[in-house]
Amino acid sequence: MKRKWIFISIAAIVGVIGIIGIASAIKKDHLLSKAEVRNLIKEQYSGSITGIHLDQSEGKDTYKVGLEEKTGLYELEVDAITGNIKNLVQVKKSESEQTNEPAISEEKAKQLAVDKYSGNVRSLSAGEEQGEKIYHITIRTKQEEIKLVMSANSGEITSEDKRSIEKDTQQVKLTEVQAGKIALDEINGKIEDIELEEDNGHVFYEVEMDAKEQEAVIQIDAFTGEILSVVIENEDE
After folding, report:
1. Which residues contact 96 (CB under 8 A, 6 or more apart)?
2. Strand 72-79 and strand 62-69: pairing?
3. How confident is the model over 23-50, as pLDDT tens digits?
4. How far apart are CA 171 and CA 117, in angstroms?
5. 167-234 CATH pick, 3.10.450.40, 3.30.70.890, 3.20.20.70, 3.40.190.10
6. d(C-alpha 1, C-alpha 8), whole Å
7. pLDDT of 160-192, one tens digit each?
8. What is the pLDDT of residues 148-168, one digit of tens each?
9. Do 76 and 87 meet the contact criterion of CB atoms below 8 Å apart?
């Protein structure tokens, strides 16, 4: 009788081991392959996959995936059975993120504007809109003056405002070169920008100058050449 119980116990143990083995085999068969995980990630993210490995520690089947995006390097945890993303952590910021510099430089932004509108960039200033870095750019063609907003991260133009300058140029008697000469006679410095402006029907040139450690803005009547105003500010103000 005792020997019979021993045989029964051994058979039971073998049966349990067999069940565990079968369950493990079934589980293994249901694990997603690395190729399947790679395709799942590519469907959801635009970055480059740097590596994939299966982590089976702590009784869990998880793929850990390295993903490189424009903003930096990320690690994703993907359920090896369902394909669900369980966690996403940024492990390293990109150089532009670390230095807080936009992906598109000012020079690149100017070039993009010139390529699109075939004109001359008159002014560019950096700003921020809804948490995103942007550039305010004024560009002039023969027929139009265009004020636009460009994303400093993608280079996409998010808004533009066009104004015809044909009437202004037909009416004015003073050229930009003449206005610049008048400004230089008034203040010894370097001309940074000249723009033809209109305010309540009054057309004038606005000349921005760099005078040593000061910045000057001079308004000159576009008909008579008369200096309408001079504003001087220290650069450190």
Report:
1. 102, 103
2. antiparallel
3. 444 455 589 999 999 999 988 888 899 9
4. 24
5. 3.10.450.40
6. 11
7. 998 876 554 456 788 899 999 999 999 999 998
8. 999 998 889 999 998 876 554
9. yes
